[in-house]
Design a protein that fits this description.
Layout (H helix, E strand, L loop, with lengths): L3 E8 L14 E10 L3 E4 L1 H4 L2 E7 L7 E9 L5 E6 L2 H4 L16 E6 L8 E15 L4 E8 L11 E3 L5 E8 L9 E5 H14 L10 E4 L4 H6 L9 E6 L14 E5 L2 E2 L5 E3 L5 E3 L1 H5 L6 E8 L2 E8 L18 E4 L2 E5 L2 H8 L3 H4 L2 H9 L10 E6 L14 E8 L13 H10 L4 E6 L3 E6 H14 L8 H6 L4
Antiparallel strand pairs: 1-2, 1-4, 2-3, 3-6, 4-5, 5-6, 7-8, 7-10, 8-9, 9-12, 10-11, 11-12, 13-14, 14-15, 15-16, 15-19, 17-18, 19-20, 21-22, 22-23, 23-24, 24-25, 25-26
Length: 478
């Protein structure tokens, strides 16, 4: 238990609705634990958007300044921290990791929950082992369900088996209106993947996924129509991410039969342990960026074998910004930015999945990037000024094309990302700057007037720069 520490963090979150600002800072506390290599593990959300992190050992009255080595926002396993002060490491032995527990195994959860300053230890039982959707990163990975709710402060603490080995990190609970006394633990395979990824690459590269959407094949008529024999099992590929390497070999309506020699059932599961099955995405989650896998597919009643190489996967609307401030670009009061889940949450609240416009939700759940650098660019708002009169009601409108002559609509160029938009606007020397937005909405500005008006508009609204630091650093137009 001496390896369990309390983590104190000062957070300063970006303001995604006004990306040139940050929100008011706030403090939080959570749990963590010492592992080998003079490192501390905790949850990613415990230190996300940190400006200062400190840790305190059990029984100590001293908080030690910590350095964040890596944040695994995708799976919320971690942040990995270290402390330079040698005094912190005195008398502390790192935890040892144990094997994945079985159903009904007892686990002991340790941490610093709300209600006191001393360590809390509770015994719980593993009630389910399955692929879970991780709330913080919207990633599906292996997870343990235990029969106890986990509060925010206890999050990040270790779960021990009866041998005193760590079998997971506590990280989330269901809301009280969904279920009572249910909590979740990130198990050792996921933890070790994160640690080994950091050790292998010097940074967190993430969990690769197979860039496909698939359909269960449990309906006998569907299987027969797809040319499957009675003894064949697998899942139908609905579509392939065009930006993923798999798009070079896989096609829609291929039947995925096996992954690395493991047969896939019609419901998408594979054998796991004795008497257990689990989603085949578990096999994918064991891979690292750069690894290869053998897959077997059925296409037009012919069995084909391919080798695919995994790369880091990205969505058109990413679930996270990797703790980086949002990008933005401003011209004549038009604020352009990119859409992400944090942006949707900032604009529409925690219930953004119900409150956001349908066109954005459709892209969130179904759209895939057509190129590795594609972003969904929107006019988030239009700052009031003389030049933007009658455009002020434009909010979160997706940009389609920009930067061409007013009369040259046919040959207009597409906007693939925010950097490309900034480049096109900065380089535009035509009389008119034309912005084509979704639903055939058009904005027309005189180019010289728009560029000349921008500094005064920025000053009026106390905005320090017309573009974010990342765009300044790239500046392809200079």
């Amino acid at each position: 238990m001496d390896a369990v520490v309390k983590v104190f963090c000062i957070h300063t979150e970006p303001n995604f609705s006004m990306p040139w600002q940050r929100k008011r800072q706030y403090s939080s506390s959570s749990s963590g634990f010492v592992i080998s290599g003079r490192r501390v593990l905790t949850n990613a959300h415990s230190v996300e958007h940190y400006t200062q992190v400190k840790v305190k050992k059990r029984g100590s009255d001293t908080k030690y300044l910590a350095t964040v080595l890596s944040i695994g926002t995708e799976c919320d396993i971690a942040a990995m921290l270290t402390v330079k002060d040698d005094e912190f490491w005195e008398g502390v032995s790192p935890v040892e990791f144990g094997e994945l527990p079985a159903l009904q195994d007892a686990v002991t959860v340790a941490g610093y929950p709300i209600g006191g300053d001393t360590i809390s230890v509770t015994s719980r039982v593993v009630s389910r082992i399955e692929i879970l959707s991780y709330i913080h990163g919207s990633t599906e990975l292996l997870g343990l369900q235990i029969d106890a709710a986990i509060n925010f402060v206890n999050s990040g603490g270790p779960a021990f088996n009866d041998k005193g080995h760590c079998v997971g990190i506590t990280f989330q609970s269901l809301r009280q209106d969904e279920a009572e006394n249910i909590g979740y633990v990130i198990p050792t395979p996921v933890i070790q993947h994160f640690i080994q990824d950091y050790e292998k690459n010097g940074a967190y590269t993430g969990f690769p996924i197979l860039g496909i959407e698939w359909q269960k094949m449990e309906n006998p008529d569907l299987r027969k129509a797809m040319g499957m024999k009675p003894e064949q099992k697998g899942v139908r590929i609905r579509r392939v991410d065009p930006a993923a390497p798999e798009s070079g070999v896989l096609k829609s309506s291929d039947i995925l039969l096996s992954f690395d020699g493991v047969d896939i059932a019609n419901d998408g599961t594979i054998p796991f342990r004795h008497g257990e099955r689990i989603g085949f995405s578990y096999l994918v989650s064991q891979k690292y960026t750069g690894d290869s896998s053998a897959i077997e597919v059925l296409r037009n009643s012919e069995i084909l074998n391919f080798n695919i190489k995994f790369t880091s996967h990205r969505r058109l609307i990413p679930a996270h910004n990797g703790s980086k401030p949002p990008s933005y670009y401003i011209i004549a009061g038009f604020v352009f930015t990119t859409v992400s889940v944090p942006y949707l949450r900032s604009e529409y609240g925690d219930n953004y999945e119900y409150e956001a416009p349908m066109n954005l939700l459709d892209k969130l759940f179904h759209a895939t990037p057509q190129s590795p650098d594609e972003q969904l660019v929107v006019v988030s708002q239009v700052l009031v000024s003389d030049i933007s009169i009658r455009y002020e009601d434009i909010v979160n409108a997706q940009v389609r094309i920009t930067g061409q002559r007013y009369e040259d609509i046919v040959n207009a160029q597409p906007v693939t990302n925010l950097r490309r938009l900034a480049e096109m606007v900065e380089n535009c020397d035509d009389e008119f700057l034309k912005l084509d937005l979704e639903y055939e909405q058009t904005v027309v500005l005189r180019t010289k007037t728009a560029k000349a008006a921008t500094p005064d508009i920025l000053a009026t609204h106390c905005i320090p720069s017309a573009m974010s630091a990342d765009l300044k650093a790239l500046r392809p137009w200079t």
